[in-house]
Write a structure and sequence with these properties.
With 481 residues, this protein is α/β, with parallel strands linked by helices. The chain is built from 13 helices and 25 strands. It binds methylmalonyl-coenzyme A (MCA) and adenosine monophosphate.
Length: 481
């Protein structure tokens, strides 16, 4: 197949492709850096990428794609247990990292390749990869067990980014700003590969701040991507940051995704800036499914219409399709199309379970459709999946980590509404010794070090016994404060 990034060899050589803080690369510089690295890794197996929010991560992923080699982005804050699982499951041959970055012990046995952003080599080798070949393996949490690696083929990336270009009138003239992490689809595929496929620019903030957003949008950036927590923080800051109001008012497109944007935050931003945030709906396994279009009506609380090429249906409990778009009948969203992943790595059981016999992917998201086709997400099938700060977090994974603490006899994890994070993680604990239960901070640190800091419980509640039904199953719906 052809390169995913025609602009690397097209007529945009002098244009800035990537900017991270004070450092940037033009398309010509990116082509040289990625080409040099691609030459080193081409023909080998999968590569892990130590996905810090840096220029090096962007160069490493582009190099892997140019070389036709699958990249496995790693959260640099992963705990040892989670990292160990991802490495043994994905079996990368090398790890690509920024020079000087200290890598934790599970990575020290792997060959390390430092990413040089000022390459001297020629263009990348002609990619020999096929459309169906894997481009990325992105780890995503399920309700139980450790995260699964979603194998995302090259055609899914090309398809989703081109569909978004159509929906958002996204061109090479756009300059995107964001502060999203680079080990998930949102920040990496949409936020870095998206601008590069269009021949446009991305400015990454290193870490999200409202000041950074204001600065960049007031200095030529045209689009903002963020999770609802970021838009909540924007909404909170508008009354005290006039520069931010001006910045948002002047942007071409404000896009939110990864979780539901609360109507209250949508309306507060609209009232202060005159601009409506556009919502799009996706998943690691499906990339993007729906969006409000740039020329459509950005109604609060809806994720818009299916993107070009995406088939979407709502399905009743018995598997039959919801017949009418009445804005009331709730069904599970199922999708089909070239935007879908191919499989969960090493998990044929989970892959088979995720699809219907005729190839529809079961998202687990519950929605209604308005008569004009707009999709509104109203909930999730599984209570054991928590969305906090836009991260999907499986309750089972945290429960298992908590149970490894000697002070914990029993544990159950739930999500509770949170104005900033959407949901906050709550751990319900039966302590081994009720006289001296482990403290909340100790348990948070325990989880943060084994898994990742965003998976740590924000609240710990202590019980004498967990509520269970006759079968012995924990009744999570009874766990409310
Ligand atoms: C706190 N920290 C700790 C501990 N407590 N570290 C170790 N041990 C502890 N006990 C550190 C954290 O690592 C972090 O460091 C800092 O303290 C603050 O942590 P936290 O409170 O968790 O962060 P936050 O400021 O509340 O983060 C909010 C956020 C973040 C910036 C909105 O949640 C975020 O980046 N979310 C994006 C998620 C995302 O991209 N999801 C996409 C997946 P430090 O500050 O140094 O980091 S969904 C997807 O891809 C699909 C396809 C889709 O539809 O988009
Ligand atoms: P992830 O598995 O981390 O890729 O997260 C995918 C999930 O995020 C979806 O199944 C939805 O539950 C949720 N999600 C993504 N975008 C939106 C949105 N715009 N509104 C509501 N939920 C969303």
């Amino acid at each position: 197949m052809s390169s995913l990034f025609p602009a690397l060899t097209g007529g945009t050589a002098g244009r800035v492709a990537l900017r991270f803080g004070a450092r940037s690369l033009t398309y010509a510089e990116l082509a040289a850096a990625a080409g040099t690295l691609a030459g080193r890794i081409a023909g080998g197996g999968r590569v892990a990428v130590w996905a810090t929010p840096t220029l090096e991560t962007a160069v490493a992923v582009v190099a892997a794609l140019e070389a036709g080699v699958a990249a496995v982005p790693l959260n640099p804050k992963s705990g040892e247990k989670e990292l160990g699982h991802i490495l043994s499951d994905s079996a990368p041959t090398v790890v690509l990292a920024e020079p000087g970055a200290e890598l934790p012990s599970p990575l020290r046995d792997l060959t390390r390749v430092d990413v040089e952003v000022h390459g001297t080599g020629g263009p990348a080798p002609e990619p020999s990869a096929d459309d169906e070949d894997p481009a990325l393996v992105v780890y995503t949490s399920g309700t139980t067990g450790p995260p699964k690696g979603a194998v995302i083929p090259r055609r899914a990336i090309a398809t989703t980014l081109d569909a978004l270009a159509d929906a958002w009138q996204w061109t090479g003239d756009d300059v995107l700003v964001h502060g999203l992490p680079l080990f998930h689809v949102h920040g990496l595929v949409l936020g870095v590969l998206g601008p590069l496929r269009r021949g446009g620019s991305v400015r990454h903030l290193g870490r999200f701040t409202t000041e950074g957003v204001a600065r960049e949008l007031n200095d030529g950036a045209t689009m903002l991507f963020g999770v609802p927590t970021m838009y909540h923080r924007v909404a909170e800051s508008l009354s005290t940051e006039p520069e931010l109001v001006k910045a948002l008012a002047g942007a071409r497109l404000l896009v939110s995704g990864s979780a539901a944007l609360p109507v209250h935050d949508h309306e507060r931003i609209a009232a202060a800036t005159g601009r409506r945030v556009i919502e799009r709906y996706g998943m690691t396994e499906t990339l993007m499914n729906t969006s409000v279009r740039a020329d459509g009506e950005a109604r609060a609380g809806t994720v818009g219409v299916p993107l070009p090429g995406v088939e979407l249906r709502l399905v009743e409990e018995d598997g039959s399709a919801v017949a009418s778009y009445d804005g009331e009948t709730v069904g599970e969203i199922q999708v089909r199309g070239p935007n879908l992943f191919t499989e969960y790595l090493n998990r044929p059981d989970a892959t088979a379970e995720a699809f219907t016999a005729d190839g529809w992917f079961r998202t687990g998201d519950m929605a209604v459709r308005d008569p004009d086709g707009y999709v509104r997400i109203v909930g999730r099938k599984a209570t054991d999946l928590i969305k906090s700060g836009g991260y999907k977090i499986g309750a089972g994974e945290i429960e298992n980590a908590l149970l490894e603490h000697p002070g914990v006899r029993e544990a159950a994890v739930t999500g509770e509404p949170d104005a900033d994070l959407g949901e906050r993680i709550v751990a319900w604990i039966v302590p081994t010794d009720p006289q001296s239960p482990p403290g909340a901070e100790e348990l948070a640190d325990h989880v943060a070090s084994r898994l990742a800091p965003h998976k740590r419980p924000r609240v710990v509640r202590y019980l004498d016994v967990l509520p269970r039904n006759d079968m012995g199953k924990i009744m999570k719906r009874a766990l409310t404060s």
